[in-house]
Specification:
The complex is a heterodimer of chains A (274) and B (262).
Chain A lengths: L18 H24 L9 H13 L2 H33 L1 H15 L3 H12 L3 H26 L2 H9 L4 H39 L4 H10 L3 H39 L5
Helix pairs in contact in A: 2-10, 3-4, 3-6, 3-8, 5-6, 5-8, 6-8, 7-8, 8-9, 8-10, 9-10
Chain B lengths: L6 E14 L4 E14 L3 E5 L6 H9 L6 E6 L2 E2 L7 E4 L11 H11 L4 H14 L15 H14 L4 E5 L7 H17 L3 E6 L2 H7 L2 E6 L4 E7 L9 H4 L3 H15 L4
The chains are: A mainly alpha (274), B alpha/beta (262).
Chain lengths: 274, 262
Amino acid sequence: MTDATPSRTHATPRLAPSRAQVRGAIGIAVVFIAWQISVWIIALPAYFYPAPADVAAAFVDLTLKGILPSYIIDSARRYALGVATGLTLGVMSGLLIGLSRFWSRLLGPVINFFYAIVEVAWIPLLVIWIGYGFNTILIAISYVVFFPVLYNTLTGVQTAQKTLINAVRTLGASRLQVLTSVILPSALPNIITGFRVGAGFAFRGLIFAEMIAAGSGLGFLIFDGATTRQTDRVVVGMIMTGVLWLAMDRLFLRPLEMATIERWGLVRAKGGGV
Amino acid sequence: MTAIREPKISIDGVTLVHVNEERRQEHVALENVSLDIGEGEFLCVVGPSGCGKSTLLSAIAGFMKPWTGEIRMNGKAIEGPGADRGVVFQEYALLPWKTVLGNVAIGLKYRRVPKAERERLAREYLAMARLTDAADRFPHELSGGMRQRVAVARTLANTPEIMMMDEPFAAVDAQTRLTLQEELLRVWDEHPITVLFVTHSVEEAVFLADRVAVLTPGPGRLREIVDIGIPREIRQWDSISTDARFLELRDHVMKLVRDPGR
């Protein structure tokens, strides 16, 4: 492949909805129609099995009262801070373990052990130690993000090409410059992958933690709605979690992944610089 | 033709050993080699695979320490890798996420040359390597030959005292290789610099070098140093490939490589 000069691939501009987007919208519409039909067939009281119209009414009600916006803001803030904390700690630990044999041997087994303990198992203990609220949720979310980010960073660091490191050293790079100009960029696609996996786990973790340890947020809305038999609110909470995840995935995570793949992945697939 | 001027690099009784710590194995790559590289000289090291020629290069680059003996540059023992000894690798070793311009400027960036200044210098060296139009492209968009020209430009832009090249043209096709060899001599003519060029190709070595050092395999020892007294003016493949001196020297070196003797 030495003399091929491939042109860069460009993503198609997304002004008009693509065929895939149209089909995705049809899929969602079918779910709503099936839901409405099932309501007609099952015919239970609305507090037990709400119809789309009931849920829409609850949505408008919660929005006008300002409950839903404030809950979404609370959830989003916990989520963003938790993910950012987990990401930072995960990347830093991944670099430390990936670059130092000493730290790798010291921390490797410990981290492996804690990886096996799901975050859900920590929440009761955290509630006892720290209490309900923001800090407990923050720790639970960071915890789930931490591990996939750490392991993927580690893989990224270990796959950084030795030749590239040697090359920049002969160009005068200091240790820190080797880290910032070769090792981190080499590991970036892996870090992004870890981030995306962690972000997904964290979203589930958030809802669960809010059910147990919060007095606001979407998880609380679902849990509180169920205990007070406001099932329409429960469904509003559920739909909102799905919508928020979809929006974040489409608007942030996927473009981020695509951008790195476009610049890094193509090159890697062809075998690094060779 | 070239008597040794001031030695730029002195290799003095050097034995190089690969140590595999995990398996507790040692492998002698090079044994008791003494060799000087003169200031401004173009020295080629040839030998079959396994003669330790690349190991010698990485020791001069500072990636490994001699088991015995000493390697000095300008009279000072080499302590580790440094920007004064540039290396061009067979596998190019360009940063895939940086443009051609970014790659060529990176050594200057490490030394904190201001952005405008390092881009100006980088473009100068790109022009020298006839890569001006490729400045904003990424390495994976270039052919192997172009990538290696970027690597040479990157090394020279960093103004090292010696440029070491480790089988740099082994991964490109035969046609491109001939062009790159001629290009290298043209560039070397414009930017005189001490060059250590490691290759397994006898023709390549004789074509390029002031002197050719022949190593014997397993463990590598210095067999002979051959002076290549062919004038620089006729070092183009069209004229040299029928030149009697070239053919004679090539056969002589070939014989040394193929029949290690003793």
